[in-house]
Design brief:
Blueprint: E1 13-17, H1 22-33, E2 37-42, H2 45-57, E3 61-66, H3 74-86, E4 91-94, H4 109-133, E5 139-143, H5 156-175, E6 182-188, H6 201-205, H7 215-226, E7 237-240
Parallel strand pairs: 1-2, 1-4, 2-3, 4-5, 5-6, 6-7
Length: about 250
């Protein structure tokens, strides 16, 4: 890992959608520590503003942008505001998403649209608008999920949105090749964002690594994919799940 003083992200401008909490917050903090200029975009104004204030107090450059990417014009306005504030957009992490699960026969079109508009349409719009102003050797990372590849009951909208993100990833990688913008996805497995004491031993044992995932596991993956030295990686999906989806499960 590059030390901050030799960081490839020094003065690069990164947008983290859904950056106020959980995985997005961890991503924002890790890039800030590597001297990036961090734009946190989120509908959660209270936590988003508090995170950026905390980062500034630690000597980092950060600004909060209130944005609900489920709204059609929100992405364009947010990208424009970030460009006007920092002067560039070099990295986009499409992390914003809502996780809603509802029995199939109780899921209506309103439920479907709410999830798809945030998780998939919002990512598409943010990527399209950011790519208009990104310089060569920029990077986009879409945060998908292992639920794009496997499911539990009642996850139709969420699974479809995350599966769509994987398809969007390779489509964008092809469309943006002439601009030398790389586009990749990260598919987290079980990433615990709450109190670690609430986890049980059998939760950890479901993973080949012997533990449930942490937000920093995803943040480090984003650092890797966005490093310009890794410019031979595009259109890919990196599964970060502690090997959970490689483990065969039998009833005993």
């Amino acid at each position: 890992m590059n030390k901050p003083e030799t960081s490839p992200f020094h003065q690069k401008v990164i947008i983290v959608t859904g950056g106020a909490n959980g995985i997005g917050k961890a991503i924002a903090k890790r890039f800030a520590e590597r001297r990036a200029q961090v734009a946190v975009a989120d509908a959660d104004s209270e936590n988003g503003a508090a995170l950026c204030e905390s980062l500034r107090q630690e000597g980092h450059e950060a600004a909060f942008f209130a944005c609900d990417i489920s709204q059609p014009d929100a992405a364009a306005a947010m990208i424009s505001d970030v460009k006007n504030t920092f002067g560039s957009v070099d990295i986009l992490i499409n992390n914003a998403g809502i996780s809603e699960f509802k029995p199939l026969f109780e899921t209506d079109v309103t439920d479907w649209d709410r999830v798809l508009n945030t998780n998939l349409r919002g990512a598409f719009l943010c990527a399209k608008e950011a790519a208009k102003v990104m310089p060569e050797r920029s990077a986009v990372v879409n945060i998908s999920s292992t639920r794009a590849l496997m499911s539990e009951p009642g996850s139709e909208a969420y699974a479809a949105s995350k599966g769509g993100l994987l398809a969007l990833t390779h489509a964008l990688a092809v469309s943006l090749q002439d601009k030398r913008i790389r586009v990749n996805a990260v598919s987290p497995g079980w990433i615990h964002t709450g109190d670690p004491k609430s986890l049980r031993e059998k939760d950890h044992r479901q993973h080949l690594t012997g533990r449930v995932g942490r937000p920093d596991d995803i943040a480090r993956a984003c650092l890797f994919l966005c490093d310009p030295e890794n410019d031979f990686i595009t259109g890919e999906n990196l599964v970060i799940d502690g090997g959970m989806t490689r483990k065969m499960i039998y009833e005993h």
